[in-house]
Fold this protein.
Amino acid sequence: MAVTTTPLSNPVGANIVTDTASNATAENDVRSGATTVYLVDVDNTANAAETYTKLYDSASPTVGTTAPDFIFKVTASTRKVFVLDMSGVAFTTGLSFATVTAAGTAGTSSPSSSVIVRILTS
């Protein structure tokens, strides 16, 4: 499995969830139960096309059917960091995510190359 969670010591007191090969297969319940998301870092430098990283407040979403709570568009060959809010955004059920090549709920195709996703949570 390409997903890891790294605990951080104070003063941050948070975790970094890292997936070195995010694709259309959802990484389910990477932070079980209630969690707060502060930042999403998407590295799409290996792809010649834009990608969309979708975050779900769900323990096991169905990519292409379950409506994502957030969609982050990253243009081709770039890396982008999204700060959600200084106070973070609460996820109540669990945090799951996937990366696809189409916006909206319906996209289900994986990027052609690896997309690295890092999510700062508490």
Q: What stands out?
A: The two ends are 22 Å apart (CA to CA). The first strand starts at residue 3 and ends at 7. The chain has a mean pLDDT of 92.
